[in-house]
Each structure stands twice: as C-alpha cells, then as structure tokens.
Amino acid sequence: MIDTAKLTTFISLHYGIKAEQIAVAPRGFVAKTYYLTDLHKVKYFIKLIELNSRYLGNIETSLHGLEHLQQSELDFISYPIQTTDGKLSIIYDDYQLILFNFIAGDWTVTFDKKELLVLLNRLHHAPMPSGVINSEDF
C-alpha cells in the first residue's frame, strides 16, 4: 500500500497540485492506480508502474503520443500531465509515476462495441505529427 500523505506531498512538489484526497482506483494490468481530487475538485488519475516492469519502456514511449492526441481535441483519451519541469513522468520511490487527466467512463472491456468503433475511427483519423512515436520494425 502506498503512503498517501507522502504521495500527496510529492505531487504538490513536482506537479504543483494540492491534493484534497487520494483514493485507490481499480487496478489495471500493469500499474497501481489511484484517483486524486485536488482542492478545486478537479480529478486526476495516477499510475504507479514498478521500475522493473517489462511494460515501462512501451508506456514511456507512448506518453508523447498521448500528449499530441490531446492537442487533437480527442476528449475521450487521457493524457499525461507535465511535472513543473516539463516531464511526462517522474520516479517516485520504486515506481515511475504518471499523472493523467481523469475521464469518467467505462473500461474498454465493458464498452458498447458500436460506440467503441466510432471512437476508434476518430482516433485513427486524428492528425499525428511525424517523429512523435517510434515506429516498430518487425
């Protein structure tokens, strides 16, 4: 279990966000997850990924792409919030911490399939600057 008082102080220091509450969120596949509500009632989503996770490299690579998708006005995709010094993630104890905006909604595994296809279509037609995401070479 994470020390939420310590995490609150850390986020205030590195993100400039004053947390009113941090609560455990449903765990995903690769990270410990938490909801953060700030003093203005704005909600965020915290991912804590173990530094030795085999997924960490792929997640780090995807953050710039998510940031650019946010600029494409795709309101259904969470994007990383920058630290006060412009980083998209930061080391917190034995974890890589990523703070996201919070979007209320269902998990994709429980999503209406027709609505999911509409959103995927919007995603695939969103402009993406070249060089933002490394291409795969099989």
Task: Describe what this molecule looks like in 3D.
This protein starts with a helix and ends in a 14-residue tail after the last helix. Strands 1-2-3-5-4 form a five-stranded antiparallel sheet, covered by helices on one side. The longest helix has 16 residues, at 56-71. By secondary structure, the protein is α+β, with helices and mostly antiparallel strands. The model has no long low-confidence stretch (mean pLDDT 82). The protein is built from three helices and five strands; from the N terminus they run H-E-E-E-H-E-E-H.
Helical content band: 25-40%
As laid out across the biggest beta sheet, the strand order is: 1-2-3-5-4
Q: What's the count of strands?
A: 5
Overall form: globular
Number of helices in the DSSP assignment = 3
Oligomer: single chain
Radius of gyration: 16 Å
Strand content: 15-25%
Structural class: alpha+beta
**Series of secondary-structure elements, N-terminal to C-terminal:** HEEEHEEH
| Low-pLDDT stretches | none
Euclidean distance between termini CA atoms = 39 Å
Structural key phrases:
3 helices, alpha+beta, 138 residues, 29% helix, 22% strand, five-stranded antiparallel sheet, globular
Write the layout of secondary structure elements.
Layout: H1 4-15, E1 19-24, E2 32-38, E3 43-50, H2 56-71, E4 90-92, E5 95-101, H3 113-124
Antiparallel strand pairs: 1-2, 2-3, 3-5, 4-5
